[in-house]
Amino acid sequence: xxxxxIPVKSEKVSGSWSQxxxxxxxxxxxxxxxxxxxxxxxxxxxxxxxxxFEHPNVEYLYVDFEVxxxxxxxxxxxxxxxxxxxxxxxxxxxxxxxxxxxxxxxxVDADDCISNKIVSFVEENSSKDTIGWYINKGYFYxxxxxxxxxxxxxxxxxxxxxxxxxxxxxxxVFQQKPHLLxxxxxxxxxxxxxxxxxxxxxAIYSMANGENHYMSGGQMKNLSTGSIFKLETIKxxxxxxxxxxFRTLNRKIRExxxxxxxxxxx
Length: 266
Known about the structure:
Layout: E1 2-7, H1 17-31, E2 39-45, E3 58-62, H2 78-97, E4 104-107, E5 113-114, H3 118-125, E6 132-134, E7 138-142, E8 147-151, E9 163-165, E10 174-175, E11 181-182, E12 196-197, E13 203-207, H4 217-225, H5 228-231, H6 234-241, E14 244-248, H7 251-257
Parallel strand pairs: 1-2, 1-4, 2-3, 6-12, 7-13
Antiparallel strand pairs: 4-9, 5-13, 6-9, 7-8, 8-14, 10-11
């Protein structure tokens, strides 16, 4: 059994709570659309997003620790405060998940989508020596686009929805200084064990959706309008292109990941 943990930011730090709620609802639909229903979902939040969707495997865990005070804090501290809030929620979810005696845990960011094959794959491939998997391949989706790009390697270094891990190892994924941080890039552990590569594209990283912390619309625009000759060498460009392939957001991808335009009625 897998327990999915979805940390949800507070309405008080959201740019648009209605937009975030739509993103979260899509994520929840994606996570609960697994081929195998042998899973639980723990949503950790200060407030429940405004959604109508319900599923019997979903539990809401409400936390009462302080919401990040971004209005009064220096901007240079905002990222750290957001990451600490997220990490505290993940750890609260980990503690709550103990009652399910799950074989594996997976953290899912509240605006991403995941493959519906994950639970069935884990059931068929788990063993006492397999501590988990990391998502090496995944999609990048800019909200509203008709195309989607496949990142063929190192997806886990860019997106937080990327680790499936045994509960006994989850705390080793966190760092304590300079602030509490969920280090999703972790693959190797101190006892010489390693996460395995998931052998298929496992997640979709939603970007420029208005609520994404690192890939906002402005950041995407800056990347697209910069001179490629100033950003990297020609050799670097070809190296980067080999990591990506673009394709139409087709029916197969939509059905596997539960991805759909936010203005689409469900």
